[in-house]
Design brief:
The protein is an alpha/beta fold and 320 residues long. The protein is 32% helix and 30% strand. It folds into 3 domains: 11-122 and 214-246, Periplasmic binding protein-like II (D-Maltodextrin-Binding Protein, domain 2), CATH 3.40.190; 126-213, Periplasmic binding protein-like II (D-Maltodextrin-Binding Protein, domain 2, 3-Layer(aba) Sandwich), CATH 3.40.190.10; 249-315, Alpha-Beta Plaits (2-Layer Sandwich). The protein has helices at 11-18, 25-28, 44-54, 81-89, 100-106, 154-163, 177-182, 197-201, 221-225, 227-246, 261-267, 296-305; strands at residues 34-40, 58-59, 68-69, 74-80, 95-99, 111-116, 126-133, 148-151, 169-172, 188-193, 204-213, 215-219, 249-257, 275-278, 284-292, 308-315. Strand 14 and strand 15 form a beta hairpin.
């Protein structure tokens, strides 16, 4: 999927394009490296941890927008998620991680390579919602005609209302957006939320959902058309998705006599079917399965009661 250009103006992103040679590894290196953008801010730690699980060690240096990574084929830069799509689109970055919301906000022409549903707080997609004061008379989007709305997602919100022929004044919010309704500065806000708890805590009420968003790995169209760079981007996508798929999963190994095999296998909630192999010169079997971590505490006693022995639980970092 490709989309068109937008706006921006972040110091970190500017540093990507204008950093001095002594600070920018892309200008120093004679080797053609894939330029990877990592989201700076709320998603930064979660993203670095996801890459660790996927097999890459990233180290962030203080006062430096260029983290080191243990892969000679990659160079990294920290860029705000709000501006990532713009810098991927214009080729400053070959690929990067940002939300669908900021791709749409900037209308950037990028290749959406993979959905990566994770955040700083949960593994659920986030929502951009329209919220009003709890005692507000407004119940629908249409009732806000002629009113003032504050949001960080400025362009998308303006287009969203315009497409529904609802004339509103949309102003950019630099932060503390929820407080603006409480203080009477605006009539409503468009704000991002995962659970809605922060919005409710400010005494606000959600009346409409504009967009469901999640993190995406995106690529520059020219980089995607290059077989070498595309192969590297696809490797990143594969391993990041594998790391996410393994979250909350563990492996179980156990031994069981042939007489109890069917009863034990029937208890295992495996992805497809457990792996069963016979033990050497024995009527016992080794059984292995991948299960949700939160079922193990109830599953182990049942397996023992069904005749399983030597049960071992081990962590999983990637599942393909």
């Amino acid at each position: 999927m490709v989309r068109k250009d937008g706006r921006g103006g972040d110091a970190a992103a500017a540093a990507v394009a204008h950093s001095a040679p002594s600070q920018n590894p892309w200008q120093e290196s004679a080797v053609a490296q894939l330029k990877l953008g990592l989201p700076k801010g709320s998603l930064e730690d979660a993203t670095i941890e996801l890459f660790r699980k996927a097999g890459w060690k990233i180290r962030v240096h203080s006062r430096n927008y260029y983290p080191s990574i243990d892969d000679p084929e990659l160079s990294c830069a920290l860029v705000r998620a709000q501006e990532m799509a713009r810098y991927v689109e214009n080729g400053t970055l070959d690929c990067g991680l940002t939300g669908l919301d900021w791709i749409l906000e900037n209308q950037s022409q990028v290749v959406e390579v993979a959905d990566l549903i994770y955040s700083k707080a949960s593994s659920k997609p986030a929502r951009w919602v329209l919220a009003v004061a709890g005692d507000s008379p407004y119940q629908t989007l249409e009732e806000l005609k002629g009113k003032r709305i504050s949001t960080e997602l400025l362009n998308f919100t303006r287009r969203y209302f315009a497409e529904r022929h609802v004339e509103v004044e949309v102003e950019f919010s630099w932060g503390a957006t929820e407080a603006k309704v409480v203080e009477g500065l605006v009539d409503a806000i468009v704000e991002i939320t995962e659970t809605g708890s922060t919005i409710k805590a400010h005494g606000l009420r959600i009346i409409h959902e504009l967009l469901t968003t999640n993190t995406k790995l995106i690529a520059n169209p020219r980089a995607w058309a290059d077989p070498v760079r595309r192969a590297k981007i696809e490797q990143i996508a594969l391993l990041l998705k594998a790391a996410l798929a393994a979250e909350g999963m563990v492996g179980l190994k156990l031994n069981v006599a042939e007489a109890n095999l069917e009863a034990v296998v029937a208890l295992l909630p495996s992805l497809r079917a457990p792996t069963v192999s016979s033990l050497y010169k024995s009527d016992w079997y080794s059984v292995e399965a991948m299960v949700r971590e939160n079922v193990v505490r109830d599953l182990m006693p049942k397996l023992l009661a069904a005749g399983a022995e030597g049960i071992v639980e081990y962590p999983l970092t990637k599942m393909v």
